[in-house]
Amino acid sequence: MTKKILVATGGGDCPGLNAVIRAIVKRASQEQDWEVYGCKESFNGILKDDVDIRLLTDENVAGIHVKGGTIIKTTNRGGPFHFPVKQDDGSWKIEDRSALMKKRLENMGFHSVINIGGDGSQRISLELTKLGINVVGVPKTIDNDLSATDYTFGFQTAVEIATECLDKLVTTASSHSRIFIMEVMGRDAGWIALNTAIAGGAEVCIIPEIPYDPRLIAQKIASRYQKEYGFCNIVIAEGAKALDGKVTGTDPTAIGDCHIKLGGVGDKLKLELQALGIEHDIRVTVLGHLQRGGTPIAYDRILATEFGVKAFELVKEGKFGNMVVYNHPDISYVPLEKVLEVANLVKPATSDLVRTARGVGIAFGDEVLCNK
Description:
Blueprint: E1 3-9, H1 17-28, E2 34-39, H2 44-47, E3 53-56, E4 83-86, E5 92-95, H3 98-107, E6 110-117, H4 119-130, E7 135-139, H5 155-176, E8 179-184, H6 191-200, E9 204-206, H7 214-223, E10 225-226, E11 229-230, E12 232-237, E13 249-250, E14 261-262, H8 265-275, E15 282-286, H9 298-317, E16 322-327, E17 330-335, H10 336-339, H11 352-359, H12 367-370
Parallel strand pairs: 1-2, 1-6, 6-7, 7-16, 8-12, 8-15, 9-12
Antiparallel strand pairs: 2-3, 4-5, 10-11, 13-14, 16-17
């Protein structure tokens, strides 16, 4: 009897998603009586009134590992436990369609589900597991904020893109004696900003885990200028906080979206520096979705492929309720409960990367470096 696997990609898109999908399909094709289906827009494809899923074969996944995005689409809105339904009067109502999802999976003959996504997606994986659905998780996020795995695919590509952009800003900052503030993604984790700042040679790195004092950043900037000549490059994470501990962003407006939209902290820092009397020309560049689009680098293609193969093998072995992880040098798995216990955030007091950054003179807007 044919066993059917439903694959979903949830949350923001990420370089390497297609490589995971391809690996699952190609590994399954080596076994008899297995079929892989893609669910459109995370689980929306099976939750909608008009079910939208597609059979995935060796032929239609050929060559997709080099492409960004996901061929089965993704979304960070809705989900089986918070599905938005438009009412006759034009208003929206949030419904729990998890029981409906389970029934449809059973009626359509699905043996199991592989859910590819970040912390939000894996919370859904855990809840679906509690309902008795056979689920295997695959970690995906450019933020690298899942502590159960050394790395998530997509992160290295995001750092590569951000570093290339910083390289370009360094030359124009030098040419014009300007201050450039480059805002990068990462939400509550500073990994993209920290790695980019070191790789690109920034003078200042501001991350969510170290609240910054704009006065100390202004001091660092002053040290970079001899009379009117000099320049300074600042990498700031979108989730960075000043001493008041508040993030910069806007409340969600889209139906079914419950995530605050981080952004604007680069402009906020610019205003803070100008208020402190910084007269040098300050420019802000927000990379935004450039970091999560486009072709994945080789590292992420390889890691994503390893994850995809391992995910299928966990399904075949009946090891459900787990998420694939990379713990160097092994591709292994951990229970979904363990995945969500604690986020993978930068630990300033013990991080070798923070120590390295301070060692090459990068300021974080705190007292530590400025007292050296």
